[in-house]
């Protein structure tokens, strides 16, 4: 049994050089050794506390996987809304460009005022489009971040599963039975150690995504600020023009 387990772990580790992390998780998961229930039944209840604790921890971690999956689904709804808003902004930009073209082709006496107004409207429409586009990029990054968090949560469950089996193996190894000699505690420890390494690597990836989201948020805030500044200037100019028009009428 020791030789079989060693070869299984070796095969799972060798595959890490050419497969994605999600595939690696399933590959290692499928090869992780388990303790036969037929021998586990001989472990006295008094010696099962470590197994019980490991199983309890595993249940808690599974809840985190479910939460992470729900977060991804919510974010996908948000990006769908953001994409709809981007489409509206694109239509607005095209409409502003068409109005500006008409202004350029208007009579000379009307052209100056119309050009200034429509040029300003094009600029504001472009800022709204850029802001909407940046929001889509932000939600795309958030989905990638949440998928990384989901993978991290799954790895924690995989590690918990391996620790449950390790606790079983240690309990069984204490039995005075011939079949207990076939259970190699060290083999189970090797799998736990490999999961711990993969978890640490996934945590590095998750930390990197946190930084990427900060950068995306800053870019989004900058775009929104530019958009709001443009809208305020438009309102200010419109109010000034209205005052001038009223003054002329008086």
Could you characterize what this model shows?
This protein is mainly α. Helices cover 86% and strands 0% of the residues. It has six helices and no strands. The chain is rod-shaped and about 105 Å long. Residues 1-8 and 10-20 have low confidence and may be disordered.
In short:
It contains 6 helices and no strands.
The general outline is: rod-shaped
Count of helix runs:
6
Helix content: over 70%
Count of strand segments: 0
Structural class: mainly alpha
Mean pLDDT equals 84
| Beta-strand percent range | under 5%
- The unreliable regions are 1-8, 10-20
Q: Report the C-alpha radius of gyration, rounded.
A: 31 Å
| Strand/helix succession | HHHHHH
Please report the distance between the alpha carbons of the first and last residues.
101 Å
Major sheet summary line: none
Keywords:
mainly alpha; about 250 residues
What's the structural blueprint in terms of helices and strands?
Elements: H1 2-14, H2 21-31, H3 37-40, H4 49-104, H5 108-173, H6 185-249
């Amino acid at each position: 049994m020791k030789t079989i387990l060693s070869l299984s772990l070796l095969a799972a580790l060798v595959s890490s050089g050419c497969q994605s992390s999600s595939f690696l998780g399933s590959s290692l998961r499928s090869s992780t050794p388990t303790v036969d229930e037929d021998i586990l039944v001989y472990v006295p209840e008094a010696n099962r506390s470590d197994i019980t604790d490991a199983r309890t921890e595993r249940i808690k971690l599974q809840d985190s996987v479910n939460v992470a999956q729900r977060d991804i689904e919510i974010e996908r709804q948000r990006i769908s809304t953001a994409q709809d808003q981007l489409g509206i902004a694109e239509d607005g930009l095209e409409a502003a460009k068409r109005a500006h073209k008409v202004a350029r082709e208007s009579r000379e006496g009307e052209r100056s005022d119309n050009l200034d107004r429509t040029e300003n409207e094009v600029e504001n429409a472009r800022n709204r489009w850029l802001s909407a586009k940046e929001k889509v990029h932000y939600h795309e990054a958030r989905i990638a971040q949440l998928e990384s968090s989901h993978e991290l949560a799954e790895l924690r469950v995989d590690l918990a599963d391996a620790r449950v089996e390790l606790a079983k193996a240690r309990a069984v190894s204490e039995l005075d039975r011939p079949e207990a000699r076939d259970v190699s505690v060290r083999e189970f420890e090797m799998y736990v150690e490999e999961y711990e390494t993969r978890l640490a690597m996934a945590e590095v990836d998750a930390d990197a995504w946190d930084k990427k989201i900060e950068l995306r948020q800053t870019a989004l805030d900058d775009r929104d600020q530019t958009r709001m500044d443009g809208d305020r200037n438009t309102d200010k100019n419109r109010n000034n023009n209205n005052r001038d028009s009223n003054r002329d009428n008086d």
